[in-house]
Amino acid sequence: MIFTVGGIKGGTGKTTISTNLAVWLSRHGADVLLVDADEQESASDFTAWREETKSDDIGYTLVQLHGATLRRQIEQMRSKHDHIVIDTGGRDTASQRAALFVSDIYLLPFAPRSYEIWTLSKVQALLSEIQSGRPTSLQIYSFLNKADTRGADNSEATEVLRENEELNFVDFPIINRKAFATAASKGLSVFEMVPADEKAISEVEALFSHITGIKKK
Ligand SMILES: Nc1ncnc2c1ncn2[C@@H]1O[C@H](COP(=O)(O)OP(=O)(O)OP(=O)(O)O)[C@@H](O)[C@H]1O
Ligand SMILES: [Mg+2]
To answer: Crossing angle for the helix pair 94-102 and 70-77, nearest 10 degrees?
Structure first.
């Protein structure tokens, strides 16, 4: 399966989701390729810290690919791996578009703040262009990340996302939890952190299981 984690807004948690998904899939025994398609190179930074923390055993292979040629490069690599996870930058780039043409699944994290929602029309325009240029339709999942533990922001954002059927909003929110940043600073997923944040783990697992059909361990 090829997953692209994207959107048109910075800081929504794309790299957090990509890296946790790559590690989660590898912990289920899959051969995983993580593609850093963002010039900021955050997934590569994560991986460099991971190499220090975990020595050689990082669990996935990392490559950096950019621009329109990414599509052809991914097509060449797809048979060599069970899963490919592509982390894109928070803009409508040639890399993200190329990734979407070749992906099976598009993950769209949204942070539940009103300004986030304003990029929705741009995401929709991008999606209708991509969908019309594909032989099969791209499977989309949008969800809340950095959600509040409670409060009106989540429900307002949920309502707006739900109104847009093509975004296929799934109600598996990931709450704003310190564990994500703490783990990332060591190049770790939340599944590997000691002490474990069980709530963070169960939220991420619920989302990933829903999307991939792979059962929790
Ligand atoms: N659920 C969460 N709870 C707490 N912090 C989070 C969560 N998700 C992401 N973060 C933190 O928010 C910041 C931005 O996350 P991340 O780098 O994953 O976003 P991004 O969408 O990849 O950003 P960019 O657009 O710059 O690539 C990071 O410091 C990350 O640790
Ligand atoms: Mg990022």
So the answer is: 30
**Chain segment 32-85, per-residue pLDDT in tens:** 999 999 999 999 999 999 999 998 789 999 999 999 999 999 999 999 999 999
**For ligand 1, atom 31: residue with the closest CA:** 181
209 lines ligand 1 (CB under 6 A): no
Report the separation in Å between the CA atom of 12 and the middle of ligand 1, taken as the mean of its atom positions. Answer: 6
CATH 3.30.750.24 for domain 2-212:
no
**Sign, CA torsion 58/184/210/162:** negative
Distance, CA 202 to ligand 2 centroid (Å)?
A: 22
Neighbours of 155 (CB within 10 A): 12
CA of 18 to the centre of ligand 2 (A): 9
Reported in sequence order, the residue ranges of the chain that DSSP labels E, i.e. its strands, are: 2-5, 32-37, 61-64, 83-88, 105-110, 139-147, 174-175
Q: Copy the structure tokens of residue 189.
A: 């997923």
Instruction: Calculate what percentage of the chain has a pLDDT beyond 90.
Output: 88
Q: For atom 3 of ligand 1, which residue has the closest CA? A: 176
